[in-house]
Amino acid sequence: MLGDSSAKQVALIMIELMDLGFLPMTLNFFETSIWKHGLTNVLCISLSPAMCNELQMYDIDCYDVTDTHIDNKDRKFGSKVFCQS
Length: 85
What we know:
The protein is α/β, with parallel strands linked by helices. It has one domain. Helices cover 31% and strands 15% of the residues. A 3-stranded parallel sheet has the order 1-2-3, with helices on one face. Helix 1 links the parallel strand 1 (13-17) and strand 2. The radius of gyration is 16 Å and the shape is globular. The mean pLDDT is 76.
């Protein structure tokens, strides 16, 4: 509620990743921006199961979207598949 100082505010930071090639840049981002500022509610979204496996070795939460029912389908804006995601 706006103006209510007793309301707890929770923010979720989402970082979208493409594949394992972004691992060094992602780890640098976590080291210099996420962990440095004490942020803990972070979820990485990856198109690569290997990327999630690597991130989990660093205790970074990751969700692999290749495990979903909409993987590799046409996601044009307004399409049935887009609305399901």
